[in-house]
Design a protein that fits this description.
The chain has 213 residues and is mainly alpha-helical. It contains 9 helices and no strands. The longest helix is centred in the N-terminal third of the chain and has 35 residues.
Length: 213
């Protein structure tokens, strides 16, 4: 135990840097993914049949594709097309589109659960469609959408560990580099797993508090 604590102290800064990178990537992905998901979800709910087709294809492809495949595609395909993306940017891109597809579906489901009369009532008092969506529908949809949205955030935090495969220095990759120096694989993998667990539990508790309010 003393040896592990000593090695943990020596490796504290790489692990902290990896944790901060994990949190930054996850936060960026959930913000961008939420924006994508809300816009796509609104289009899937209220768009015409023809206009919904490309958005439906996007959702089905992303939801049916493993996150690892999306990460590798976001890393390699842009370089083939002549675009220069860092590994971190490619990781954020992949996780954002993954989150966007899932958030689009939960947005669509939440909006469709609201009675159509709410839209008619908004029109009767002269609200535009944008005002109806923002001021009438979204506040009602938020309560049912919040729990699955939190689940998506948790999946992003766990999914960020896959970015180690493309060289992003997040928590898992830095942990592996530390293990390569001290060979304490079990201890450091368990420690990193506990960090992921604490983050996800804290996120879940914060969501529960917000939901009660």
């Amino acid at each position: 135990m003393d040896a592990f604590l000593n090695q943990l102290w020596i490796a504290r800064w790489p692990l902290v840097d990896g944790l901060l990178t994990t949190l930054q990537i996850s936060l960026a992905a959930i913000v961008i993914g939420t924006i994508i998901g809300v816009l796509v979800g609104v289009q899937l709910t209220y768009g015409s049949f023809v206009s919904r087709i490309p958005f439906r294809l996007y959702v089905e492809i992303m939801r049916g594709t493993p996150v690892l495949v999306s990460v590798l595609a976001a890393f390699y395909i842009p370089s083939v097309m002549g675009l220069s993306l860092t590994a971190k940017m490619a990781g954020i891109l992949a996780l954002s589109f993954f989150a966007g597809a899932h958030i689009a579906e939960l947005t669509r489901g939440s909006l469709q659960s609201i009675p159509v009369g709410q839209i008619e009532a908004g029109r009767s008092i002269g609200l535009t469609f944008r005002q109806i969506v923002v001021n009438v529908l979204f506040p009602q949809a938020l309560r049912s959408a919040l729990p699955p949205w939190i689940n998506t955030g948790v999946e992003l935090i766990k999914g960020s560990s896959l970015l180690s495969l493309i060289g992003v220095a997040e928590l898992l990759l830095n942990t592996q580099e530390v293990i390569g120096r001290n060979f304490m694989a079990i201890q450091f993998y368990v420690f990193s797993g506990c960090i992921y667990l604490v983050i996800n539990i804290a996120l879940d508790q914060a969501a529960r508090t917000f939901d009660r309010r």
